[in-house]
Amino acid sequence: RELRQIIQWKVWHNPVHERDETKDPASLKRCFDFLHLTSRSFTAVILELHPELLVPVALFYLALRGLDTVEDDMTLSLDTKEPILRNFHDILEEDGWNFDGNGPNEKDRQLLVEFNVVVEEFKKIKPAYKAIIKDITKRMGNGMADYVKNAEFNVNGVDTVADYELYCHYVAGLVGEGCTRLFVEGGLANAALLSRPELMESMGQMLQQVNIIRDIKEDHDDGRRFWPKEIWSKHVDKFEDLFKPENKELALNTSTEMILNALNRADDCLYYLAGLREQSVFNFCAIPQSMAIATLDVCFQNHDIFKKNVKITKGSACQLMTESSQNLQLVCEVFRRHTRKIHHKNNPHDPNFLKISITCGRIEQFIESIF
Ligand code: RWZ
Asked: Could you give the residue numbers annotated as active site?
């Protein structure tokens, strides 16, 4: 009975949180400019957040985006990267800090050139929020530094599935933890979520793994390799073989194994969403997850991912946004729809046919069990 209440809970009107932007200082305006410039899809959900958390989450995002821009830049030497990554949590409180060492083609170069505006605004948020953001930044920066150092010696990229998930933990699982702690600190989520760390980890893992699956071609062209050898070596001899047209079937079998690994996180994500009570926080978490499962669906049995960037259509993105900004029941319906589509596309000749079928069945059953 308690579960019924949770799933049918509905905030009948989405409160519109009016902000008087004329009162914003120039540095905060600049932070929001950067938010618009760096993240296309994420900005929309961040801007709708409850006013208590809007600025802390926006600054959290920009801090981690700054870290990401240092880690990602292939033109920077390890000697330059490592100290910045490891000390970024202190940089957040270093008055006037900025960095113009990124290559000219780095997409978010300007954020670091004017990073002093983030530092300026970081000073003004509540100490409890600062402590959470600093803690996550410290752990993520050190994890990235370890990864970058290791990658220097291991040109073949990520070895085992455990290594792959550890990387995803640093760049995304920790984001899940940080966001959850901010929600709870702000009184906008059930503190019980903190005692189930595997649920917030899955929220981040799901999003990051989907990005890594979808971006296989782009990452390969840029010299990055995140698909673990433990998976691709079961299907092809060399990583490059994935992109050869004659290996179409082997490449598809590799991609479905990657998708299976991500799909195994789906039920945890729905369980996490069931622990959220505040509408803007629910939307912030649910919309990206719906996009993620829809992306897994378009990538499943789709050889185009090895040739170009595959994306869900603008139309289905809009539909997902509307459906996911309502309640858990509608999000479950989105998950069920895409799980069923994946299930139908499952190929009996795929070595993971049975496992994929079992996982899809489990997700569908999980959804049915809560209604
Ligand atoms: C949502 C508050 C850009 C922060 C981390 C994200 C950099 C590499 C990219 C901060 C969805 C793709 C954005 C998985 C979280 N890490 N991974 C806030 C950030 C998926 C978002 C992006 C991660 C992240």
From this structure: 167, 214, 224, 284
How far is 46 from 35, CA to CA, in rounded Å?
9
35, 61 contact by CB (below 8 A): yes
Average pLDDT for residues 316-325, to the nearest whole number? 88
Q: Please tell me the number of Cα atoms within 13 Å of 215 on its side-chain side.
A: 14
Helices (H), 116-247: 116-122, 127-153, 161-168, 174-185, 197-214, 216-221, 229-232
Q: How far apart are the CA of 172 and the centre of ligand 1, in A?
A: 6
Question: Measuring from each residue's beta carbon to the nearest atom of ligand 1, which residues come in under 6 Å?
Answer: 42, 57, 60-61, 64-65, 68, 171-172, 175, 179, 207-208, 211, 288
- Minimum-distance ligand 1 atom for the alpha carbon of 204: 14
* Highest averaged pLDDT of the listed ranges 7-11, 72-76, 81-85, 317-321: 81-85
CA-nearest residue for atom 8, ligand 1, is 171
ipTM over 0.90: yes
Q: Are 65 and 38 in contact (CB under 8 A)?
A: yes
Which of these, 133, 118, 121, 123, lies nearest to 186 by C-alpha position? 133
N-term to C-term CA, the chain: 10
- pLDDT over 80 (residue 156): no
